[in-house]
């Protein structure tokens, strides 16, 4: 794979999306090795047709791993299916504990914890005159929140979160062999950490989400089989990735864009009632998950393009959210927009089950920062450089002064 071309695409995909929308039908993207679905209506249609466009391989790795790395991964405790890449009955089965654990009542119960942790994290840097907000806030709060929801001991949260980051690096970034082996070992360590929780919650249930997954995916009595444990561990790892990395990413991009658009930041400081709309607009403007792949299961037509069995399409939420046929002046951030039915959190049966939890954290962070640090601004001597990724699009760093 040409990672130079892929990195350039991923750091700024929007010009590529705009060119694709100008062409009739779908456009084949060599960077993605997929047909690019770039129009809003086509994207919604694709996401509503799971019988024709399977989720299998939704997060196909960009890196082929050598034998020594696969040998390390084989020592892990995962290996089961996950909601992201499942279809039909398997998807419904994996989705059920997500829906229950991330319900409105569950999120409401977590709100005091979100508020308390946000305040404490901001307390840690508010008096310093500046901070790097990805490390000080965006990569910390969502991990603590998802750890609380799952029922992790706070001391185990950093290792669980790091395992998620290392997994994305391993499968989507080029690394030297020794780095790959090290990343694989950390992924395996995180799996065994979660496997320990699964065993304990099976023996002694608690009122937490790990127990919810155990009871939903392994309702039978008796000792858990290796297969069942692997299935639950994989689902929990997937939830950690989705519940932490994507929220962290959107938190970072949201703050970066609002601080770039100074007049909109200042309006939020003066009118906090606009914060919910600002969150939705930021999710539309620069979605943390830029899209997922779908595999064609039978000959079909999408967006005027004839597709054959086995073809791969990349359904781009990021491109759809900038479609001028759906959103006026789509490349302009506007906190007054109220972008109804945007695809920042997906659509259809695979729509993000944690969107409600993400919104709660994002709104709380904006409320806290606009109230306490209204003078916050991007450091003029530090540029905002985006990570080369389409699955948790965010700044590498976010250096802010006040």
UniProtKB/TrEMBL annotation:
One of its GO terms (molecular function) is steroid hydroxylase activity. The keyword Mitochondrion does not apply. GO terms for biological process: cholesterol catabolic process. Gene3D superfamilies: Cytochrome P450. Keywords: Heme, Iron, Metal-binding, Monooxygenase, Oxidoreductase. PROSITE patterns: CYTOCHROME_P450. It holds the Pfam family p450. Belongs to the cytochrome P450 family. This is Cytochrome P450. It comes from Halostreptopolyspora alba. The lineage of its organism: Bacteria, Bacillati, Actinomycetota, Actinomycetes, Streptosporangiales.
């Amino acid at each position: 794979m040409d990672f130079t071309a892929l990195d350039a695409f991923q750091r700024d995909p929007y010009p590529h999306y705009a060119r694709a929308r100008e062409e009739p039908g779908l456009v084949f993207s060599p960077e993605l090795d997929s047909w690019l679905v770039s129009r809003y209506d086509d994207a919604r249609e694709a996401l509503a047709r799971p019988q024709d466009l399977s989720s299998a391989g939704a997060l196909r790795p960009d890196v082929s791993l050598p034998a020594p790395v696969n040998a390390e991964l084989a020592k892990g405790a995962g290996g089961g299916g996950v909601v992201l890449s499942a279809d039909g009955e398997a998807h419904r089965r994996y989705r059920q504990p997500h829906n229950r654990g991330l319900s409105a009542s569950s999120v409401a119960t977590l709100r005091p914890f979100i508020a308390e942790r946000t305040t404490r994290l901001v307390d840690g840097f508010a008096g310093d005159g500046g901070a790097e907000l990805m490390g000080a806030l965006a990569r910390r709060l969502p991990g603590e929140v998802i750890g609380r929801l799952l029922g992790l001991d706070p001391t185990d949260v950093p290792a669980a979160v790091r395992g998620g980051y290392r997994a994305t690096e391993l499968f989507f970034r080029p690394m030297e062999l020794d780095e790959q082996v090290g990343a694989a070992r950390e992924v395996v360590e995180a799996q065994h950490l979660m496997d320990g929780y699964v065993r304990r919650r099976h023996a002694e249930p608690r009122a937490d989400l790990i127990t919810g997954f155990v009871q939903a995916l392994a309702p039978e009595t008796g000792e858990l089989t290796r297969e069942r444990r692997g299935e639950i561990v994989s689902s929990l790892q997937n939830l950690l990735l989705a519940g932490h990395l994507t929220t962290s990413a959107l938190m970072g991009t949201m703050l970066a864009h609002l601080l770039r658009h100074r007049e909109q930041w200042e309006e939020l400081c003066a009118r906090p009632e606009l914060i919910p709309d600002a969150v939705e607009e930021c999710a539309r403007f620069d979605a943390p998950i830029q899209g997922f792949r779908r595999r064609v299961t039978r000959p079909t037509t999408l967006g005027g393009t004839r597709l054959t069995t086995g073809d791969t399409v990349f359904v781009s939420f990021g491109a759809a959210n900038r479609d001028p046929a759906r959103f006026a002046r789509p490349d302009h951030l506007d906190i007054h927009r109220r972008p109804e039915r945007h695809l920042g959190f997906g659509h259809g049966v695979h729509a993000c089950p944690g969107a409600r939890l993400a919104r709660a954290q994002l709104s709380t962070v904006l409320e806290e920062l606009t109230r306490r640090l209204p003078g916050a601004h991007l450091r003029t001597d530090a540029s905002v450089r985006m990570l080369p990724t389409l699955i948790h699009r965010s700044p590498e760093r976010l250096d802010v002064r006040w």
